[in-house]
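During the reporting period the student researcher (J.K.) took over the structure-prediction task from the postdoctoral fellow and processed the backlog of single-chain submissions. One of the processed entries is reproduced below for the supervisory committee.
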Amino acid sequence: MIANTLFAQWAPTSGSEGGSITCIAACGDSDIFAGTIRSGVFLSTNGGESWTGIGPAQTPVNSVAATDSIIFLATNGDGILKSADRGVNWGHADSGITYENITPGVFTSIALIGTDLFASTVGGVWMSPDYGRSWSQLSAKTYYGFFEGALSFAVSGNIIFAGTDGDDIFRSLDGGKTWSELVSSRNIGARQYSIAIKEPFNGTDTTRIFVGTNSGVYVSVDTGNTWIVANNGLTNTDVRTLAINGDTILAGTNGSGVFRSTDDGASWSAVCGILSDASMTSLQLVPAGGESTAGTWLAGSTGGVYLSTDRGLSWNPSERGLVSLSINDLILDFGNLYAATEGAGVFVSTDDGASWSAINNGMTSLNVYSLIFKDGVLFAGTDGDGVFRSTDLGLSWSPANTGLISIYSGFNNIRAFAALDTDILVGTWGAGVFLSTNDGTTWMGPYFGTFPIPHGSGGSSFVCSLAPFTGGVYCGSSDGIFVSTDGGITWEPELEVWARSGEGNASFLSFSQYAQGVYAGVSGTLDEDGVIYQSAGDSTWVKMNNGLTDSSVQCLASSGTSLLAGTAQNGVFITSNGGEQWHPANLGLPTGNIHSLVIDGTTVYAGTYYGSVWRGDLSNIVAIRKKNDATLSNYFLFQNYPNPFNPSTEISYQLPSSSYVFLKVFDVLGREVKVLVNKQETAGSYSVNFDASNLPSGVYFYRLEAGTYSNTKKLLLLK
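J.K. obtained the following C-alpha cells:
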C-alpha cells in the first residue's frame, strides 16, 4: 500500500458493519475476539457492545486462542500468526511445522490448553510447549490410518478431547502427549465440528460430553466410551457449534440458526427471530468481566455477530465497529445508496451512509454481485439464484428469471446490468447476455453475436461488465471488449484477447465515460491491464497507466475533471488530466482491494473487499492529493509494510524529481538477492511488491539509490 499517510482522505460509513465470522473466542475477564473470513480479527472489551479491528489486514482467520498477553491465529493460508501487543504487530509462530502433501499455511483450529498450544492442519496436529517458538507433531494410530487433523478441542479435568474431519474422536489422558481413538465414535458423524463439556451442575454428579457433527448432536456420560444420539427436535442436524452455560445448551446449525435445550439434549427447540435461517459458526459465553450477566452469549455467523442476554432465547446484532462486509457493487437512486454484498445480501442507506439497513425479504441468495434501477424497479443479480426485482425500493423481492435458460452453466450467476432507453440487459458468468423489454418480467436470449460458443472459442459468454454509451453498449468479458449498436441483440469485437490466451488472461471489469472518450478497467496478465482509453470516434485503445502502481483495475468512476480507479491491491487512484498521470488516494482506507466506486455530488463511496463501505469528499481527496504531492520536496524511502512479512511486502518511496532509480534487496552477507527497480521514473510516490516466496526466513536489507540519494532499511521474513 502507499506509504504517504500525511493526511486522511477516507472515513468509514456508519452502520455498514457485519461480515462473515469464522470464530469467537474469549480470554480473561473482558477480551473477546472475533475471527473473520478475510478481515483478520476484531477485539471487543465490553461484552460485544463494540468492536475494533486489530489486523492483520486481509487475513482469513479460522480459529483464535489467547492468553492475557498473546494472541494466536490459525489462518487459512498464512500459517499461525502471533501478536504480543494486542494486534499492533503480527509475526509468524509456526517455525518447524511441515506441510507434506497438504496446502501450506492452512490451519483448521488452534487451542491453548494449560500452557500448551495445539494447532491442527489437515495433515496433522502439532503441539508447542513454548507459545509457538517450537512445535512437535502428534499422532495416534486409528483403524483407518493416522490422526490427521482436528476441527475442535475440549478439556474435562485432565482429559482432552479432539474432534476430527474423519469419523473419529480422539482422547488424551496425559495433556495431549499421546492420543487414542474412541472406537465408539466412528458412527456419530464424519465431521466433529464442536465439542462442549457439561460439568456437574446443581447437584448432578455426571459429566456430559456433547459433540456437534454433520449428522447432529451426540452425548456421552462415560468420558467418550459410549455415545447416544440427541437430535429430538433438531430440524437441521448439520451442527457446527455448541455452547453450555448451567442447564442451557445451545446448538448452532448450518442454515437453520440456533437450537436450545434445557434437558441435557433430550429435546431441542428452535430459537425464532433474526437467526432463524442463519448459518452459525461459533457460540461463546461472554466473560464475567463483560458488561453482561452470566446468561449472555455471542453468536458468530456468516452474516455477523449477534448477542443474547436471556440465555439464547432472543438475539440482536452486535456489530458496531465490525467493518468486515465485502461490497461487490454500489449504486445511487431516489436519494438512496444501495450496497450489494457477499453473503449478506443488499443494504440501503437513506442518509448518505450515516446508517444502513439490510433489505433481503424474499431473497434466496445473499451473494449479490450487481444492482441497477430501471423505471422505478430495483434489480439484484445474485450468484446462483439469478435475478431478483423489487418494486418497493428493496423492501420486498421476487425472482425474475423467466427466460433465463440453462443451455449453458452460469445462466443464474448474474454479474452485470445495463439500462437502455426502454430495455434492460443482464450479463451472466457463463451464459452470455440476456435482454428484457418488460422490466425483467421475461428475458430473451442468450445473445453472443456471431462468435462460437462456449467460452474459450471466442464467444463473449463470461460477462464482467455492461456499459451503455451514446449509440450503443459495451460488454466487458473474459474474452475482450464487445460492442452492440442494436440494443444487445448482436455483438461485434472491439478488443479481443481470447485468441491470445497463451500470452495470459484479462477481464474487462468496468467502463467510464470521461474526457470525451471511454475508459476501461482491466485486470489480468496481458499488456492491456490497468486502464485503457478510447477517444470518441476512434477504434483504438490506448494504455493510460502512468503512476498506477497496481494494474489490476476493478472499478472506475468519474465526476467533472476527476476520474477514480479502484484496484485489487493498492487502493484508489485519481487523475485530473485524462489519465496522463495517476496519483494514489488511499489514506485512511483499511484495505487496498476496491470492488466498487460511486460518486454523489462531491461525495465518493468506496465498496471494499471485506472492509465494508468508506466515504470521502472528492474535493478533499483532490486537495489532499495536491498537498501531499507538494510535500515531495525530498527523496524518501519508507519502511516496508507489513514487517515482519510472509511471503510478500510492499516497499514505498518518493521522488521529488525525475530520477534513475535502483531498488535492490540484499541478504545479511551483502549479497544481492533481487532487483526490484532499475529504470528512469518521474517525480511522485511509488510502491513495489517484494515477493520472497523462494527465499528462506531471515533478515534482509533493501536499498534505494536515486540521483544523489541513497538509503538502506531492514526487513524481516518469517516463514
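The committee noted the following: The radius of gyration is 27 Å.
J.K. will present the remaining backlog at the next meeting.
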